[in-house]
Amino acid sequence: MTLLWMVTGASLLAALVAWVQARRAARKIDQLSQMYWELKYQHGELRVDVQRLTGQAPPPAASAPADAARPSAAFVPLASLKR
Prior knowledge:
The chain is an all-alpha fold and 83 residues long.
């Protein structure tokens, strides 16, 4: 019977350690994601500043034909269908 309690305690301890590591990893992923989007935003701002300072025009947007820009079917959200 003592062996079963020791196995139970060890498994609870292992589960607790795994839970703490998962929380730490989730926090790290959140932090890295936030840093990524912040750097991406700053990169865009710096690129615009460099283009403005060097006198370069921003790259033109890809022009698509007018027919291709219009969707053939309208988007209908599923929430509106449930009503």
